[in-house]
From TrEMBL:
GO terms for biological process: methylation. It comes from Paenibacillus alginolyticus. Residues 42-143 form the Methyltransferase type domain. The keyword rRNA-binding does not apply. This is Class I SAM-dependent methyltransferase. CDD domains: AdoMet_MTases. The keyword tRNA processing does not apply. Keywords: Methyltransferase, Transferase. It holds the Pfam family Methyltransf_11. InterPro entries: Methyltransf_11, SAM-dependent_MTases_sf.
Length: 270
């Protein structure tokens, strides 16, 4: 996992969610609508704490974990900067595959919006999901991020020189068969695993979760830039909210899951 740590030591994950706001906006809409009214939430693999901060702003107790020490430190600094430290119950450098610092059923709900696509073996992915299951209380809601093969296939065909070794059809076919991707350009991305969309719900269900829904985090607005948001805002707040409601609604449309860079699985712990 050293390469994952090295990558996120350099990469501006907080800035990514600012530059590509639709993912965060859509995810948060679904997360907030399904969380209990109050409680203790685990943000597992939280990065710099973008979602944790939002949880704290809404009055939840939050425990944050991440594999990268620099990001855990940054999350702590954000909590202090925004005067939210009273809501944070811990900042932990931790591997999602081993959460032994937590008790069984300790959290009322849990987020895991990153670790799964950095774990390339089925045993590692199983360990992370089983730990999420263990520390979440019975009937607690979980939110888990996935990346998909079909979207990465599209990206590879569009920008082959940026996604080596997926710059030739033989390696693309191997990727489609295995879901495993190892970037040849050191530092551009980490080793990753991409799911087939049709496997996500059955996989999570096999690990003890009941599926609520699977949504496309980019919805129909994955290509939006600032100019698109500015245009719809210029037409007035009422029309802008109608546009956003359409984006939220269509995020649940199964026909657009393959064009979204990230999917959000929402399930209930049995």
């Amino acid at each position: 996992m050293d390469k994952v740590i090295d990558y996120y030591n350099r990469f501006d994950e907080w800035g990514r969610l600012d530059r590509e706001p639709i993912e965060f906006i859509v995810n948060w809409r679904h997360i907030r609508s399904l969380l209990p009214q109050k409680g203790h939430i685990l943000d597992n693999g939280a990065g710099p704490g973008k979602y944790s901060v939002e949880l704290a702003k809404n009055g939840y107790d939050v425990t944050l974990t991440d594999l990268t020490p620099r990001l855990v430190e940054l999350a702590g600094e954000k909590a202090v900067e925004l005067k939210l430290e009273e809501f944070f119950k811990g900042f932990h450098i931790a591997d999602a595959r081993n959460l032994d610092m937590f008790n069984d059923e300790q959290f009322d709900a849990s987020l895991m919006l990153g670790p799964l696509y950095h774990l390339q073996t089925s045993a590692d992915r199983d360990s992370a999901v089983q730990e999420l299951h263990r520390v979440t209380r019975k009937d607690g809601i979980v939110f888990v991020a996935f990346m998909t093969r079909i979207r990465h296939l599209t990206t590879s065909l569009l920008y082959p020189q940026h996604w080596k070794p997926n710059d030739n059809i033989a390696d693309i076919n191997l990727f489609l068969e295995t879901g495993i991707f190892n970037h040849q350009d050191e530092g551009r991305f980490t080793g990753a695993y991409y799911f087939n969309i049709e496997d996500i719900n059955p996989y999570m269900e096999s690990q003890g979760f009941e599926t609520i829904k699977l949504i496309g985090s980019s919805s129909i607005a994955g290509s939006f830039k600032q100019e698109q948001f500015e245009y719809w805002r210029s037409r007035g707040e009422e029309e802008f909210q109608e546009v956003m409601n359409t984006i939220y609604k269509e995020s649940e449309n199964a026909h657009i899951l393959g064009v979204s860079s990230h999917l959000l699985y929402i399930g209930r712990r049995k």
